[in-house]
Specification:
Number of strands: 7
CATH topology of the largest domain: Rossmann fold
Strand content: 5-15%
Bound molecules: flavin mononucleotide
Distance between the termini: 27 Å
Order of helices and strands: EHEHHEEEHHEHEHHHHHHH
Strand order of the largest sheet: 2-1-3-6-7
Number of helices: 13
CATH architecture of the largest domain: 3-Layer(aba) Sandwich
Length: 314
């Protein structure tokens, strides 16, 4: 039997997403019939971590408008049976290094007609980013067969404080009794179940069927309360991002005052409009339950939130 070739693509600032990918892919690496290659995306100009405040805010227009940065070339002529693309979310969009990779000529060659699994590690808002990834994969003629999502362990209120604190100071520890920042260690370890299911699928040529290989493993869970917030959030990012891009290039001084105004606007919205909107949305969801369920199911495709195979791959 020819060895199955699996390509892993990732970028991670803190190393968190690489840890998730290592855990998920460990069953593949331990199987002698499977060959795994991992390419890490390297931007030519590094995004420093922890972020300084202005650099953090300044990358939002380019993130939402999917503007690539320069990345190091990848030298690799292999043909792959399966691709796992691990990415994080920046401003409800794929991170700039991942967008840049998907827009590269190398990705154009390698992704054509290939089954692709996306793996997301983020705070908790990934739905709009995944919609953008779906479009980019379609443009590459790639086939999205699964999506696995791991989110930070705290609730929305906790991570509203702990995730930005982690990004801006590098500190993940718990403060004021809040959960520490980032994805739960146990969830990272448990993501091996996906790798185990992939080994079985690859050894039975299932990746050729262009169907989900990770269904029934709780790959993804859409929080219906966040759908509308993401839809409104991305619209606001597009409007303000467009304005800021007209004012100057990324890094230019002229952008700074507008970024501060936008941040103040965003915070005032979060304190006033967002809670009112959440109440209205929860009433609307109760009135139209079917629509809410339909939306949840749509955004959970192709893997779904079912758990029927959990015992098999624990
Ligand atoms: C600039 C920036 C913007 C972010 N925006 C979001 C976001 O919109 N939604 C979200 O769930 N997480 C967001 N995050 C958190 C990241 O998705 C991710 O969890 C964090 O950066 C750690 O990833 P890494 O260390 O593996 O790169 C953002 C992080 C950064 C640095």
């Amino acid at each position: 039997m020819n060895k199955k070739k699996v390509l892993l693509i990732s970028y991670s600032q803190t190393g968190q997403l690489n840890d998730v990918l290592s855990s998920l892919s460990s069953p593949l690496l331990n199987n002698t019939n499977i060959e795994v290659t991992h390419h890490i995306i390297k931007p030519k100009k590094n995004y420093p971590f922890p972020w300084n405040f202005f650099d953090f805010m300044d990358c939002f227009p380019e993130s939402v408008y999917l503007e690539p940065c320069e990345i190091e070339n990848i030298e690799d002529n292999n043909d792959y049976d399966l691709i796992i693309l691990a990415y994080q979310v920046w401003f409800l969009s794929p991170s700039i290094p991942i967008t840049s990779f998907l827009k590269s000529s190398w990705a154009k060659q390698k992704f054509k007609n290939k089954p692709v699994i996306t793996l997301i590690g983020c705070r908790n808002m990934w739905i709009m980013a995944q919609e953008k990834i779906k479009k980019m994969l379609l443009e590459l003629d790639a086939k999205l067969i699964d999506n696995v999502v791991l989110i930070d362990k705290g609730n929305s209120l906790e991570t509203f404080i702990t995730t930005p604190r982690w990004m801006l100071t590098g500190k993940k520890n718990s403060i004021f009794g809040l959960s520490s920042a980032g994805i739960d260690e146990n969830e990272i370890i448990k993501s091996q179940r996906f790798g185990k299911a992939l080994v079985d699928a690859l050894l039975n040529n299932k990746e050729k069927e262009n169907k989900s290989l990770l269904y029934g493993l709780k790959a993804v869970e859409v929080n219906i309360k966040l759908i509308k917030s993401e839809q409104i959030g991305i619209k606001s990012f597009m409007i303000w991002g467009n304005l800021i891009r007209k004012i100057g290039k990324q890094g230019s001084f002229a952008r700074k005052p507008v970024l501060i105004i936008y941040l103040l606007f965003l915070l005032s919205m979060i304190i006033t409009v967002v809670p009112i909107n959440m109440i209205i949305q929860s009433i609307l969801r109760k009135i139209n339950k079917k629509l809410a369920i339909k939306q949840k199911e749509f955004y959970e495709l192709p893997s779904g939130s079912g758990n029927e195979r959990m015992k098999e791959y624990q």
